[in-house]
């Protein structure tokens, strides 16, 4: 048997008291240790959320084992058996294991637990923040609601006053204001006038304040609502109703927009603005302050008011404009009906004039010209001539007026025919010759060699134009000459700098005739030139006794020329320097010279003559070589077969029956042509075989003529002989 | 110088001859007689006139130089000259001849001498003019153009 026992003996003899206290402490520790897991289990069971159950279990185990250890420790104070020791050791070992495990595990768990706490804190903050924001949004929402409501009220009317009144009322209501006032700028723009207030107040409406106060400038220069002092002039609207402390005052500018401020695709410029001032006062003696959202409300309302006012203004304008337009419409309608009546009246008048007036005119002219042919005393002749001239003038006037009316109506149409262009010019010359020779004016006509002989166009109107232009030239020239040139206009002539809008197009079957009439007469002042083509306008400086006419001539010419796709212009360097009239017209080129289509004979007046004397054998006697040559040339041109002799003897030697005509010069002194005639008569007693005897004489006295007739000459021609004269005489002779 | 310009010059020149009285309507008649069958009629007649007239003027000078002037002869020559000039339309020459004839009828020697000078002067003037005219016409024809037809009416 071993002497030493396994019981652990204390090193020093145990004090009984100490042991007792240890014993009790251990007991309570064990108790506590056992009860803690119980509590834990109880609470964990209660909470559903706790995630670390097994941790608890572990913890519980650790605590239980610790408790067990302490409990078993109780037995170790006294003598205990080996079993107890073993149990004790087992318990301690287990406890050690578990507690180490728990310690290890806690290292993991405690940070987690801590972070849970942090998260909780974070969430709480977030919740507080959201709460705040919710509050803000709610406030804004309410403001918005108010604004919408206000706007609705304001914009529900287009009447200015209602808009403003409503604004004030609604604002007052929404914000619970004590006073709300609107100051409008006066007409002069130098003052603000109190125009509208919410409640009745002492200061009558009409109270003004100068516009250049610093407080007002401050408000006008910002587009926000600005807090102002209740003592500023604009805010001293009401007497202090409350005790002493007036409420806060806010002022905001209201832009007054005009129609002209709205540009299309652009927002209105707010630079040169007129503003009105809105002043809002919180109730006095309340501790209320202007909140931001309230200020925002005020700003928005101010803008809306501006828009509403401008809409009202626009509406007013458009109503006024519409009324104006309606009046104008009525007036225009009336005018149109009157014009139509006038036109109808004029057309009726023209229709009547056309026939009724022309008929008597025609009768007058025809009968006067017949009268002229009869035997009249000089005074009677003078009277008849005057009648003819006056009636011609009147007839021209009627025709001009009618033509012009038809031209302006647009009912005029050109009469297109194929005609002889050269003949037209010559006819104009013939017509103008008498007047020109009276005035001793030299008229030159120059037709370009490439000018076509025949053209397609309105012959009568073209002649009218040329005659008018040339007639004017003659009329206004007292001396000198008139030159008429006509040629085919080439492309470079056509684009005239003076007529930039005249752009003619040359083509194959048309040509442009350019006629230029230059005169050396009294000229025209360049300033008067534009008026020339105006109807009925007489150039005062040129109105002389001779210038008759209605002033329509050039106006009609211009219209005719325009109808012919042409252009007419007049130039003059000034008074006394003559003037140049130029016109271009478009004429057609005739396809083929179809003989049957138009007359072959040129219209030479009073012409029943035989144009062709081809083969006619003529004998000419003249001792003057030059005269002889000229007469021969004349007759050759007429187609005759000419023989010339220079003396009587030669004549008698050459003459034969073949010669149909003998022309002899009778003014040569020394040769008695009369004898020749007598001899000729003797030679050819048979009337039919005898050639016709014609005397050429330079003298104009009757004696020569009588002598010629006495000796049996068949005809007398006075030198100088013109082609026409020769032709006429010959044809007359040959007719018999 | 191109053809159009030359033609215009010709027209102007001819017109000036009329305006200054060198020519009258008779010349126009002559121009009218010129055609394809007779293309140089005017030139021929005018040249003929120059030849004849030169001769006549010489004869006149001789005749008036005599001791005893035979006015009848002088008158006959002047008559011829008058006839020729009026045939071609040389107006001024013709007018001078008319005056000359008056002096011949009066048998005024001084007057006649004066007139002779006058006639000569006019003759040479118109001759120069004609030379220029014909030169212009030749230039135009040489350049390929044609003489433009001209019609003039006068008193």
UniProtKB/TrEMBL annotation, chain A:
Histidine kinase domain span: 352-591
SUPFAM superfamilies documented for this protein: ATPase domain of HSP90 chaperone/DNA topoisomerase II/histidine kinase, CheY-like, GAF domain-like, Homodimeric domain of signal transducing histidine kinase
GO cellular component: endoplasmic reticulum membrane
Catalysed reaction, written as an equation: ATP + protein L-histidine = ADP + protein N-phospho-L-histidine
Domain Response regulatory: start-end pairs: 617-734
Residues in the signal sequence: none
Keywords of this entry: ATP-binding, Copper, Disulfide bond, Endoplasmic reticulum, Ethylene signaling pathway, Kinase, Membrane, Metal-binding, Nucleotide-binding, Phosphoprotein, Receptor, Transferase, Transmembrane, Transmembrane helix, Two-component regulatory system
Covalent cross-link site, Glycyl lysine isopeptide (Lys-Gly) (interchain with G-Cter in ubiquitin): 719
A GO term, aspect molecular function: metal ion binding
Protein topology in the membrane: Multi-pass membrane protein
Cofactor(s) in the UniProt record: Cu cation
A Pfam cross-reference name: Response_reg
GO biological process: negative regulation of ethylene-activated signaling pathway
Residues given in the record as ADP binding sites: 472-475, 519, 535, 550, 554
Amino-acid positions noted as binding Cu cation in the UniProt annotation, renumbered to this chain: 66, 70
PROSITE patterns for the chain: HIS_KIN, RESPONSE_REGULATORY
Comment on bound cofactor: Binds 1 copper ion per dimer.
Functional note: May act early in the ethylene signal transduction pathway, possibly as an ethylene receptor, or as a regulator of the pathway.
Database matches in PANTHER family: ETHYLENE RECEPTOR 1, TWO-COMPONENT SENSOR HISTIDINE KINASE
UniProt family annotation: Belongs to the ethylene receptor family.
Official protein name in the record: Ethylene receptor
Organism: Rhodamnia argentea
Native organism taxonomy: Eukaryota, Viridiplantae, Streptophyta, Embryophyta, Tracheophyta
Automatic annotation (TrEMBL), chain B:
UniProt cross-references to Gene3D superfamilies, sorted A to Z: HPT domain (1.20.120.160)
GO MF terms held by the record: histidine phosphotransfer kinase activity; protein histidine kinase binding
Domain HPt, chain residue ranges per copy: 38-143
Protein keywords: Acetylation, Cytokinin signaling pathway, Cytoplasm, Nucleus, Phosphoprotein, Two-component regulatory system
Main location: cytoplasm
Compartments reported by the entry: Cytoplasm, Cytosol; Nucleus
Domain of life: Eukaryota
Modified residues (Phosphohistidine): 79
CDD domains xref list: HPT (cd00088)
GO CC terms in record: cytosol; nucleus
Role summary: Functions as a two-component phosphorelay mediators between cytokinin sensor histidine kinases and response regulators (B-type ARRs). Plays an important role in propagating cytokinin signal transduction.
Record remark: domains: Histidine-containing phosphotransfer domain (HPt) contains an active histidine that mediates the phosphotransfer.
Name of the molecule in the record: Histidine-containing phosphotransfer protein
Organism for this UniProt entry: Rhodamnia argentea
Lineage start: Eukaryota, Viridiplantae, Streptophyta, Embryophyta, Tracheophyta
Record gene name: LOC115748469
């Amino acid at each position: 048997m071993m002497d030493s026992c396994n019981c652990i003996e204390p090193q020093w003899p145990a004090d009984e008291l100490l042991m007792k206290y240890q014993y009790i402490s251990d007991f309570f520790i064990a108790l506590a240790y056992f009860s803690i897991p119980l509590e834990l289990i109880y609470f964990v069971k209660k909470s559903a959320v706790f995630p670390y159950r097994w941790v608890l279990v572990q913890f519980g185990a650790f605590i239980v084992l610790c408790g067990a250890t302490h409990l078993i420790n109780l037995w170790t104070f006294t003598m205990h058996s080996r079993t107890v020791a073993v149990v004790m050791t087992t318990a301690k070992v287990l406890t050690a294991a578990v507690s180490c495990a728990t310690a290890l595990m806690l290292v993991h768990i405690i940070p987690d637990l801590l972070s849970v706490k942090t998260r909780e804190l974070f969430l709480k903050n977030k919740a507080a923040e959201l709460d705040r924001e919710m509050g803000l949004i709610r406030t804004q929402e309410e403001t918005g609601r108010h604004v919408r409501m206000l706007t609705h009220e304001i914009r529900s009317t287009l009447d200015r006053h209602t808009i403003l009144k409503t604004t004030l009322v609604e604002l007052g209501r929404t914000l619970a204001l004590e006073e709300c006032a609107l100051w409008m700028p006066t007409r002069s723009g130098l003052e603000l006038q109190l125009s509208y207030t919410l409640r009745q107040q002492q200061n009558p409406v009409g109270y003004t304040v100068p516009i250049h106060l610093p407080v007002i400038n401050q408000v006008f220069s910002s587009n926000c609502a600005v807090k102002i002092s209740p003592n500023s002039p604009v805010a001293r609207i009401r007497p202090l109703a409350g005790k002493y402390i007036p409420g806060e005052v806010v002022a905001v500018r209201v832009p007054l927009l005009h129609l002209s401020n709205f540009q299309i695709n652009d927002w209105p410029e707010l630079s040169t603005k007129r503003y009105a001032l809105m002043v809002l006062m919180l109730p006095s003696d309340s501790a209320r302050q202007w909140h931001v959202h309230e200020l925002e409300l005020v700003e928005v309302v101010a803008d809306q008011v501006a828009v509403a006012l401008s809409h009202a203004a626009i509406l007013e304008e458009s109503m006024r404009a519409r009324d104006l337009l309606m009046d104008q419409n009525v007036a225009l309608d009336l005018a149109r009906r009157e014009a139509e009546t006038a036109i109808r009246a004029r057309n009726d008048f023209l229709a009547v004039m056309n026939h009724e007036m022309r008929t008597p005119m025609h009768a007058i002219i025809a009968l006067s010209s017949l009268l002229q042919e009869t035997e009249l005393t000089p005074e009677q002749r003078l009277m008849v001539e005057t009648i003819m001239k006056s009636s011609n003038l009147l007839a021209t006037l009627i025709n001009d007026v009618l033509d012009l009316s038809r031209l302006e109506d647009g009912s005029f149409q050109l009469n297109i025919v194929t005609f002889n262009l050269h003949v037209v010019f010559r006819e104009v010359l013939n017509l103008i010759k008498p007047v020109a020779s009276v005035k001793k004016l030299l008229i030159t006509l120059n037709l370009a060699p490439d000018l076509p002989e025949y053209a397609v166009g309105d012959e009568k109107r073209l002649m009218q134009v040329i005659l008018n232009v040339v007639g004017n030239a003659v009329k206004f020239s007292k001396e000198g000459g008139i030159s008429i040139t006509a040629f085919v206009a080439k492309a470079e002539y056509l684009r005239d700098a003076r007529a930039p809008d005249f752009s003619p197009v040359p083509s194959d079957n048309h040509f442009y005739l350019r006629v230029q009439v230059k005169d050396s007469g009294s000229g025209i002042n360049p300033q008067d030139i534009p008026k020339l083509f105006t109807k009925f306008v007489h150039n005062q400086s040129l109105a002389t006794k001779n210038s008759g006419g209605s002033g329509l001539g050039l106006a009609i010419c211009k219209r005719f020329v325009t109808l012919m796709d042409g252009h007419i212009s007049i130039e003059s360097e000034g008074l006394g320097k003559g003037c140049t009239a130029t016109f271009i017209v478009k004429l057609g080129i005739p396809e083929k010279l179809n003989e049957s289509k138009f007359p072959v004979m040129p219209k030479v007046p009073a012409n029943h003559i035989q144009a062709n004397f081809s083969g006619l054998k003529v004998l000419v006697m003249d001792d003057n070589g030059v005269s002889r040559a000229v007469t021969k040339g004349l007759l050759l041109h007429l187609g005759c077969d000419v023989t010339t002799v220079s003396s009587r003897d030669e004549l008698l030697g050459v003459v034969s029956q073949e010669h149909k005509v003998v022309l002899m010069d009778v003014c040569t002194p020394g040769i008695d042509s009369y004898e020749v005639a007598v001899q000729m008569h003797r030679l050819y007693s048979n009337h039919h075989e005898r050639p016709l005897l014609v005397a050429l004489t330079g003298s104009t006295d009757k004696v020569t003529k009588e002598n010629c007739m006495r000796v049996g000459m068949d005809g007398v021609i006075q030198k100088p002989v013109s082609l026409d004269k020769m032709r006429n005489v010959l044809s007359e002779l040959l007719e018999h | 110088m191109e053809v159009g310009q030359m033609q215009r010059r010709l027209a102007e020149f001819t017109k000036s001859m009329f305006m200054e009285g060198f020519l009258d309507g008779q010349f126009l008649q002559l121009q009218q007689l010129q055609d394809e069958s007779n293309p140089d009629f005017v030139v021929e007649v005018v040249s003929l006139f120059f030849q004849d007239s030169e001769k006549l003027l010489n004869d006149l000078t001789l005749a008036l130089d005599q001791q005893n002037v035979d006015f009848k002869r002088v008158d006959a020559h002047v008559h011829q000259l008058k006839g020729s000039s009026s045939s071609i339309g040389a107006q001024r020459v013709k007018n001078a001849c008319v005056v000359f004839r008056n002096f011949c009828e009066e048998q005024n020697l001084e007057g006649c001498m004066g007139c002779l000078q006058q006639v000569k002067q006019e003759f040479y003037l118109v001759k120069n003019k004609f030379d220029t005219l014909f030169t212009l016409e030749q230039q135009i024809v040489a350049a390929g153009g044609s003489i433009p037809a001209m019609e003039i009416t006068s008193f």
